[in-house]
Amino acid sequence: MSVMGDVSLSAPVASFVARPVLNLIDGEWVEALSGESFPVRNPATGEQVASAARSGAEDVDRAVAAARRAFESGPWARMSPAERGRIVWRIGELVEERAEEFAQLESLDNGRPISQARQEGSAAAAHYRYMAGWATKLEGATIPVGWAEPGQYLAYTVHEPVGVVGAIVPWNFPLLMATTKLSPALAAGNTVVLKPAEQAPLSAALLGEVLLEAGVPAGVVNIVHGIGADAGAALAAHPGVDKVGFTGSTEVGKLIIDAAKGNLKKVALELGGKSPNIVFADADLQTAIPGAAEAIFYNQGEVCTAGSRLFVEKRVFDEVVDGVAAAARSIKVAPGLDPASEMGPVVSEEQFARVLGYLQAGEQEGAEAVAGGRRHGEQGWFVEPTVLVNTTPEMQVVREEIFGPVVTVIPFDDPGEIAATANDTRYGLAAGVWTRDIAKAHRTAASIKAGIVWVNTYNTFDSALPFGGYKQSGWGRENGEAGIHAYTQTKTIVVHT
Ligand code: ADP
């Protein structure tokens, strides 16, 4: 055991972080060509715990070239779908076997409570297993040519891989976000260049080890660490990349679109949110109140689907505000590796400053914090779980994605009007509805402009359930059948008989 602040890492994890985090290119672990690296910090203390390769455009070039070779020739290009599926399944098995190592690395790196990080390994494993099954089920169709005589033509479709995929992922669920790109991309036969987030690169390095152990051939997955504006931008703009799968902020998503223009690569985007969570007066408040608290405070609020605008029908407003505020105050805020932690620090000093900036802006504009509202403690980047009331629709804290543990609670009078208020946002990723009235639940779900609506639950995900954004929350869907087809392209073949 090795001591990291006031918590312990298992021996394999301690020795893992003691080594430099390298790029994985063509099956080899290599430094950035410049020899440069960047510090990886523990957000609970601000201390440097590791260093990672700081890649530039030249490293991205090498990785894309390796991915191209692996796609066009070599074992991956010749592999049967069944064998590909077996490898993807094996990745899931190995991720699950090493889930504790992944959890400790994630907790150290992005700050999240170890109890939550432990769930991520199983969730990631489930994605690999689910997508492994699709490898042998990418069936096309036989389609009649409408104007032709029967038998004159045979027309059919096949689903082919897109080619070289650039996967650019964020730091909030590093393993899972890499997995939602890698698992379908590999199952469909693509090759990948993965750019992990610079704020939390450690688990991707462990994933690289797992991929090699699972039998993923050299060059099929390449990992290039680096800063978004350098390595990320180079990958998004690279003419040898056929598709970019990106998860991150809406602002960077727009930069990805610009960068993709050169070769018109395909683009899939999972972006930000400011998701409405609506509690009707007839809801079961015993579940709605803890549900609303969990919807915003899970993972320090660093969740793209966080229920950050909580709308509560006036009749139960005080009760819900009191309940959510009490829940906020009772959350144990502590370093993620402390087994008692229920909320860790936000990921970085920059993110910490951003969240506190929003809290100050809210206060200046007249919002009132009925719980939290400040920094927690004096060391590390902890923010108090915060509940804001007395907000108005124009306030920054109501309109912009904070990506921290901050919820605005807003009363409403007319259940018939609430969907329009909830839709008053540029985002459309997710929404929650709490009611005992089944007709009202379906009516509201139908009126909400969002890619997923949860009724009497929140943040319920599965690898089979399509996920993605309306409006400025993104392009395309991950997971499920739509998710595998995001990494295929359809070819139609027409034969004159
Ligand atoms: P967040 O708001 O979650 O930090 P970002 O959108 O900044 O999300 O980052 C998500 C991912 O996008 C990270 O891997 C980051 O390095 C990368 N990234 C940031 N800026 C760019 C850019 N200009 N081009 C490509 N990738 C970028």
Can you walk me through this structure?
By secondary structure, the chain is of the alpha/beta class. The protein is built from 17 helices and 24 strands. The site of adenosine-5'-diphosphate (ADP) has 16 residues, from α9 and α10.
Notable characteristics:
single chain; 497 residues; alpha/beta; seven-stranded mixed β-sheet; six-stranded mixed β-sheet; 24 strands; globular; disordered N terminus; binds adenosine-5'-diphosphate
Give the overall form: globular
End-to-end distance, in Å?
Answer: 70 Å
From the helix content, strand content and strand pairing, which structural class follows? alpha/beta
Q: Roughly what fraction of the amino acids lie in strands?
A: 15-25%
What's the rounded overall pLDDT mean?
97
**Total helical segments:** 17
Total number of β-strand segments? 24
Q: What value does the Rg take, in angstroms?
A: 23 Å
Strand order of the largest sheet: 16-17-18-15-14-20-21
Major pleated sheet = 7 strands, mixed
Low-confidence stretches: 1-6
Bound molecules: adenosine-5'-diphosphate
What level of helicity do the residues show? 25-40%
In short:
The chain is an alpha/beta fold and 497 residues long. Helix 8 links the parallel strand 10 and strand 11. Adenosine-5'-diphosphate (ADP) binds at residues 168-170, 195, 197-198, 228-229, 232-233, 236, 248-249, 252, 255-256.
Summarize the helices and strands and which ones pair or pack.
Elements: E1 2-4, E2 7-9, H1 11-18, E3 23-25, E4 28-30, E5 37-41, E6 48-53, H2 57-72, H3 75-78, H4 81-97, H5 99-110, H6 114-134, E7 142-143, E8 153-161, E9 164-168, H7 174-187, E10 191-195, H8 202-214, E11 221-223, H9 228-237, E12 243-247, H10 250-260, E13 266-270, E14 276-279, H11 285-297, E15 309-313, H12 317-330, H13 349-365, E16 368-371, E17 386-389, H14 396-399, E18 406-412, H15 418-422, E19 427-428, E20 430-434, H16 438-447, E21 452-455, E22 470-471, E23 474-475, H17 480-485, E24 488-496
Parallel strand pairs: 9-10, 9-12, 10-11, 12-13, 14-15, 14-20, 15-18, 17-18, 20-21
Antiparallel strand pairs: 1-2, 3-4, 5-6, 7-8, 8-24, 13-23, 16-17, 19-22
